[in-house]
Amino acid sequence: MAARVLLKLWAPVCWNNTRRNSGQAAGYCVELVRKRDYEGFLCTLLLPQESQNSVFALRAFNVELSQVKDSVSQKNLGLIRMQFWRDTVQDIYKDNPPHHPVALALSQAVQKHQLTKRWLTRMIDAREQNLDDRTYRNIQDLEAYAENTHSSLLYLILETLGIKDVHADHAASHIGKANGIITCLRAVPYNSSRRQVFLPIDICMLHGVSQEDFIRGSLEKNVRDVIFDIAGQAHVHLEHARSFKKRVQKSAFPAFNITVALDWHLKTLRKADFNIFHPSVQRRNTLLPLSLYARSWKQSY
Length: 301
Known about the structure:
Layout: H1 2-36, H2 38-45, H3 49-71, H4 75-92, H5 101-113, H6 117-129, H7 139-160, H8 166-186, H9 188-193, H10 201-206, H11 211-215, H12 221-243, H13 259-271, H14 279-282, H15 288-298
Family: Belongs to the NDUFAF6 family.
Protein name: NADH dehydrogenase (ubiquinone) complex I, assembly factor 6
Function: Involved in the assembly of mitochondrial NADH:ubiquinone oxidoreductase complex (complex I) at early stages. May play a role in the biogenesis of complex I subunit MT-ND1.
């Protein structure tokens, strides 16, 4: 109920401003993010008004990339779509974006904030390499993927806020890694239903857990121990990010409000005794809008 009430207050304002100021391309991005990245949508609504449209464009770009893997039946088709986005980024920096709503909105964001090109291309490269359906050999492989995707997005969001600070970048790196790890965990039930498991092999081997254990939805302690270890690494990254808090300028804090959602996911896992298949783990946090607002009011992350 709280989520619905706050969205009625926030969403129309954001949508109307977007349509009026940046046209249909930006409006398309808002709607895409609302449908496909609900947590990112709510987080973006709490950013300064002058950054919102740009961040919606960045998050829409991230959604487009993340959807490629599940929307194609063959790797070659995925490679074609990734090449489209690689060419699109090149064209954007030549001030000649294609007539695609996300590309047009992203071009406006690049021009407005002088966004760093390599973060965009790094996101594409990482998603493209992930088309192979390879299991992570170890937790470091998963962290590297999270750094290249989720952390890169945070670096760009910081740039829309005018933040260029090494301490903020360090915090963004750790938060992005935590986000990537938690996203991987949240995807376990879906991937297992498709007979796919992408959890780090080294941690599974440490606890004597096979891919088949996850595919059949085992609730054994060793399976939960795998989840505990991986979730623990996400928690470590969040704690590292917060260790920089006194050195990060407060104007950067809004870029990190995704930590509210990450904290909730880890708390929910703990309550479920690290049973990744428990229904509560997949449930949407209806109190997230209120929690986000409270955290932003406290000026913390």
